[in-house]
Design a protein that fits this description.
The complex is a heterodimer.
Chain A lengths: L5 H10 L7 H13 L2 H17 L1 E2 L6 E2 L13 E8 L2 H10 L4 E5 L17 H10 L4 E5 L4 H14 L5 E4 L15 H9 L2 E2 L2
Parallel strand pairs in A: 3-4, 3-5, 5-6
Antiparallel strand pairs in A: 1-2, 6-7
Chain B lengths: L1 E8 L10 E2 L4 E5 L6 H13 L18 E9 L4 E9 L5 E4 L2 E2 L3 H5 L4 E4 L11 H15 L1 H22 L5 H39 L6 E6 L11 H14 L1 H7 L10 E6 L2 E2 H4 L2 H23 L4 E5 L7 H11 L5 E5 L7 H6 L1 E6 L2 E4 L1
Parallel strand pairs in B: 3-13, 3-14, 8-12, 12-13
Antiparallel strand pairs in B: 1-2, 1-4, 4-5, 5-6, 6-7, 9-10, 10-11, 14-15
Helix pairs in contact in B: 3-4, 4-5, 5-6, 5-9
Classes of the chains: A alpha/beta, B alpha/beta.
The structure holds adenosine-5'-diphosphate, magnesium ion and zinc ion.
């Protein structure tokens, strides 16, 4: 990296921190950015700063939002008996796209993984428990990918919520194994919802 | 199953950019030490297993002076001809391609290609610790069952997570979610291991008897840390036993802080004429039994997938006496594509040399001898 002017080196290094971007890709992206029109580069930089400044966590569902509560939590026409629990905001978007699900959501921002120091306390279980206790939800749908960590997270939710008389279901796993929901196509995802089953 | 062509690019010290055309039957690779013979077998093995037999670190496989490496083969099994390709890089995770299209998971590509590797270390199969024999079973079953390979991967993750909980005094429901998965996935693994051991039993007994002119009876059994499970039990039965016995260990686990029972601690018991070969067998008996197990593996794979795997024999000829050598070659002859490495042709039988295609391996370059 010593061969580049300092500001290029910094740009490459910063891009290289992005998930899924290796040194070579970072280099390619950097030179691409240098080659575009000024206003395009500025638009990108602005978009990043804007998002950083305006996005917060919804105080109800913990999704990322620019207004609190988010537009989903704020929508009274939704089915107030179900909550769908997802690992991250990308999964929520994937499910919304199917148009099949009409209830509310809860975003955990991760899955249980002791080796990474992530237990229920590091996720938004507390917020979820508060919601379940203070409203009249009947069913919690676990829509988390089928990795062993996802499985553990779902099982833990069931152990936590079933004693409260809540039905805890999981979406059917015809999904890519160990895979993220975001990669499942809409039809598969819609079917997975339909075929959901109760934890036992 | 046959590998007809192989292209290697910066795989360890190998630099053959052009395809090498292999013989359908016997290929002999001759070269001095440290020239790349085992590297070549490793490359072929990698294509069929998605991992190496010598390292878990993929970047070790890339030439030290380069960032990327490629292994590409044309393979013919009894149903179809296909191309299998693997790209390794220091900047991204390994990628496998089947007929040019990228496989979502490694096993989606590697499942059509089976190899059996046999090296001097395998002669330690009997003498070594239980983990050697678990590895033997696991690799063998993974070759014929992608779902087993997936479960094994999940099981290792669950075990790691569960042990981490025990180490950090995490109990109750937070431990329970790992315990349940350990039992769930572990029981499938146990079931399959027991089933496969039962199939290997008559095969290895027969081969060992032939190797000893009928004198020795080899008896293999799956030896589990979980009691009361055998071939008559279903996966559900095994789950119940596993869970029950693990629960009884919860006090012990709190003290020892490690998972006390399960497939990760099991073994194969090997007896000759009723005596444990590992403890009481002579060196010769141990080697013969190891060879018998490996040859049984080949026959087992054949019976499962309907054709023989490709056989990779690394340096074993120098380690075997004439009788065992002859038996091995008779087994292989005319039916199994085999790659044999060695430092010299002397000592190999003339008929074999005549029927084989011979290559030299020198400083990472492979040429027709
Ligand atoms: N990543 C690598 N890059 C370059 N050379 C390597 C790499 N890994 C191993 N080697 C070289 O490969 C040689 C060993 O090859 P190997 O196939 O084990 O030898 P043999 O012919 O005795 O079986 C050694 O010279 C070693 O330095
Ligand atoms: Mg070698
Ligand atoms: Zn919200």
């Amino acid at each position: 990296m010593l061969h580049y002017a300092q500001s290029i080196s910094i740009l490459i290094a910063e891009l290289g921190k992005l998930p899924g971007v290796g040194p070579k890709t970072a280099q390619r992206l950097a030179f691409y950015l240098l080659s575009v029109e000024d206003n395009e580069a500025i638009a990108l930089a602005d978009a990043i700063i804007d998002a950083k400044n305006n996005i917060t966590f919804c105080s109800i569902c913990c999704n990322l939002t620019d207004e609190d509560p988010c537009f989903i939590c704020d929508d009274p026409r939704r089915d107030s008996t179900t909550i769908c629990v997802v690992e991250d905001p990308k999964d929520l978007v994937a499910i919304e796209k199917t148009g099949e699900y009409r209830g509310y959501y809860h975003v955990l921002h991760g899955v249980i993984s002791p080796i990474n120091g992530i237990g229920p306390e590091q996720l938004t279980f507390k917020e979820l428990l508060r919601r379940v206790n203070s409203s009249k939800f009947e069913e919690v749908i676990v829509a988390i990918g089928s990795s062993v960590e996802g499985e553990a997270t779902g099982m833990y939710l069931a152990k936590l919520l079933q004693p409260l008389g809540i039905k805890v279901t999981r979406i059917a796993h015809g999904l890519p194994v160990g895979g993220d929901l975001e990669y499942a196509d809409e039809v598969t995802l819609a079917r997975a919802f339909e075929g959901r089953r109760e934890f036992n | 199953m046959k590998i007809t062509e192989l292209q290697l690019n910066n795989f360890r010290n190998l630099k053959n950019f052009n395809s090498i055309i292999w013989d359908n039957k016997i290929n002999i690779l001759i070269g001095k030490n440290a020239q790349g013979k085992s590297n070549l077998l490793e490359a072929v093995y990698y294509l069929s297993n998605g991992k190496s037999f010598r390292t878990n670190i993929d970047s070790d496989l890339i030439n030290l002076n380069d960032q990327n490496s490629l292994v590409k083969a044309s393979i013919k099994n009894k149903q179809f001809q296909f191309k299998l390709e693997c790209r390794l890089s220091n900047t991204y995770n390994k990628e496998f391609f089947l007929n040019g299209s990228k496989a979502l998971k490694t096993i989606d590509a590697t499942q059509y290609f089976a190899t059996v590797m046999f090296s001097p270390e395998d002669l330690m199969l009997v003498k070594g610790g239980p983990s050697e024999r678990r590895k033997f079973l696991d690799e063998e079953i993974s070759q014929i069952s992608p779902s087993y390979a997936n479960r094994l991967k999940d099981f290792k993750k669950v075990l790691l997570q569960r042990n981490n909980c025990l180490k950090n005094n995490i109990f109750d429901d937070k431990l329970e979610v790992w315990t349940e998965q350990l039992v769930q996935i572990g029981s499938h693994i146990l079931y399959k291991r027991i089933e496969v051991t039962e199939k290997l039993k008559p095969l290895s007994r027969l081969i060992n008897r032939k190797l000893t002119q009928g004198k020795e009876n080899l008896e293999i059994d799956y030896l589990s840390t979980i009691q009361n499970i055998d071939k008559r039990k279903s996966v559900e039965d095994i789950k119940i036993e596993f869970y029950k016995q693990l629960s009884l260990k919860s006090k012990e686990e709190k003290i020892k802080r490690i998972t006390s029972l399960g497939p990760q601690r099991d073994d194969l018991s090997l007896k000759i004429n009723g005596m444990d070969v590992r403890s009481f067998g002579s060196q010769g008996q141990q080697r013969t039994a190891s060879l018998a197990l490996k040859l049984a593996e080949i026959e087992f794979i054949k019976s499962e997938i309907g054709e023989y795997p490709v056989l990779l024999l690394d340096d074993v000829f120098s380690e075997l006496d004439n009788d065992r050598k002859r038996f091995l070659l008779e087994t292989v002859a005319d039916k199994i594509q085999t790659f044999i490495t060695g430092t010299e042709l002397t000592g190999l039988n003339n008929k074999l040399i005549k029927s084989a295609k011979i290559f030299s391996v020198e400083n990472g370059i492979i040429n027709v001898y």
